[in-house]
Design a protein that fits this description.
The chain has helices spanning 9-44, 48-58. It is an all-alpha fold. Helix 1 (9-44) runs antiparallel to helix 2 (48-58).
Length: 70
């Protein structure tokens, strides 16, 4: 007796592709949110030391700031 097995690999691949797209979009959104927060903190800081301290307290990374294209 043999068992026929349905291949669910194409369904799994489609799901992985969708999740990959969602993760990429979320990474972009979080990066943009981080950029706005860094600019807001920098704009309200009295000097670079205060800015660095506030960014550290908030868990923000000014090094993540990206240059936007277009």
């Amino acid at each position: 007796m043999t068992w026929a097995r349905r291949s669910g690999s194409s369904l799994a691949n489609d799901e992985d592709s969708r999740m990959g797209i969602i993760r990429a979009e979320e990474a972009v959104r979080l990066g943009e949110q981080n950029d706005r927060a860094v600019l807001t903190v920098a704009g309200h800081s009295s000097d670079s030391r205060e800015c660095a301290e506030l960014l550290a307290m908030l868990g923000l990374d000014a090094g993540q700031r990206r240059q936007r294209t277009a």
